[in-house]
Write a structure and sequence with these properties.
By secondary structure, the chain is an alpha+beta fold. A hairpin with a 4-residue loop joins β11 and β12. It starts with 16 loop residues before the first helix and ends in a 9-residue tail after the last strand. The relative contact order is 0.09.
């Protein structure tokens, strides 16, 4: 596992958790690992786990994933929960996985959500990562075989930088995960995201996505939302591929009228009033 910072190793008898926590906070971090505690204290894993569990029960720290802890600073003491945005980069380094903040969470960071999603969405690679779920914390891991870092940006936070999908990639990811959120919801979010999307970036990003996803997104943007100026690049990408009819909705009945341009079978009217 990764160790983030090297500190002077303390003598076991001189180790104090309050001093250790202050030291972590002093370098702009809010998370730490059990390996760091073992290194500084000289404790074995079992003793360190027991000591840390006491701090968890007191509400001083929170156990996020085995071996990975977050400090509950005074501003978060009431909810006993720290926003994942503040430590997700450290967590993903600890479990040694590539990632980016995605889907509804990325949309919210781009200003395209009416309210903060209940879950914090992170895209990572295979193998599957177990979701983190408890009373106050919900981190959902979306698995993707691969992606191009050209459409992943970095967001500055109080504790460092976090990888976030671009508005264009967020649109495409939402269409790709239609089954998880529902068609009406993703159309509404895509409508908001369209205000900060660059049509050239959308074209370039689309080249990394499956043809069916580009067809559905083009149909949503041009036909449902009436913003055809954003779709010229998508149409250009599709002109170089072989396309087949795709259903607009993956949950509605499998019949409808075919849209000739996007080769989308219109089997659901959801979102047609959004403008």
């Amino acid at each position: 596992m990764t160790t983030f910072c090297k500190y002077e190793i303390m003598v076991k008898n001189d180790f104090s958790y309050s001093g250790f926590i202050k030291q972590i906070l002093s370098v702009g971090r809010i998370s730490f690992t059990i390996e760091e505690v073992m290194q500084q204290s000289g404790y074995g894993r079992k003793i360190a786990q027991v000591s840390l569990s006491r701090l968890v029960s007191k509400g001083d720290i929170a156990l996020i994933r085995r071996g990975f802890y977050v400090i509950i600073t005074p501003e978060f003491s009431l909810q006993k929960n720290v926003p994942p945005l503040m430590y997700i980069d450290d967590l993903m380094k600890y479990i040694e996985r590539s990632y980016y903040v995605s889907l509804l969470s990325a949309a919210a960071l781009h200003g395209a959500a009416h309210q903060q999603p209940m879950r914090f969405f992170v895209t990572t690679t295979m193998p599957t990562v177990r979701n983190i779920e408890n009373d106050s914390l919900h981190i959902a891991f979306n698995i993707k075989k691969e992606w191009n870092n050209a459409y992943i940006g970095q967001l500055k936070t109080r504790t460092g930088y976090v990888k976030v999908s671009s508005p264009e990639a967020t649109m495409l990811d939402l269409v790709e995960n239609q089954h998880a959120f529902g068609l009406e919801r993703i159309v509404s979010i895509i409508n908001e995201l369209s205000e900060c999307v660059n049509k050239y970036a959308l074209r370039n990003t689309a080249t990394y996505y499956p043809t069916a996803i580009i067809q559905r997104l083009g149909f949503i943007i041009e036909i449902v939302l009436g913003k055809d100026e954003l779709t010229q690049g998508l149409a250009l990408v599709l002109s170089k591929r072989r396309t087949y009819p795709q259903y607009f909705s993956l949950s509605a009945e499998r019949h409808g009228i075919l849209d000739d341009k996007w080769k989308v079978i219109v089997n659901d009217k959801i979102g047609t009033e959004i403008s």
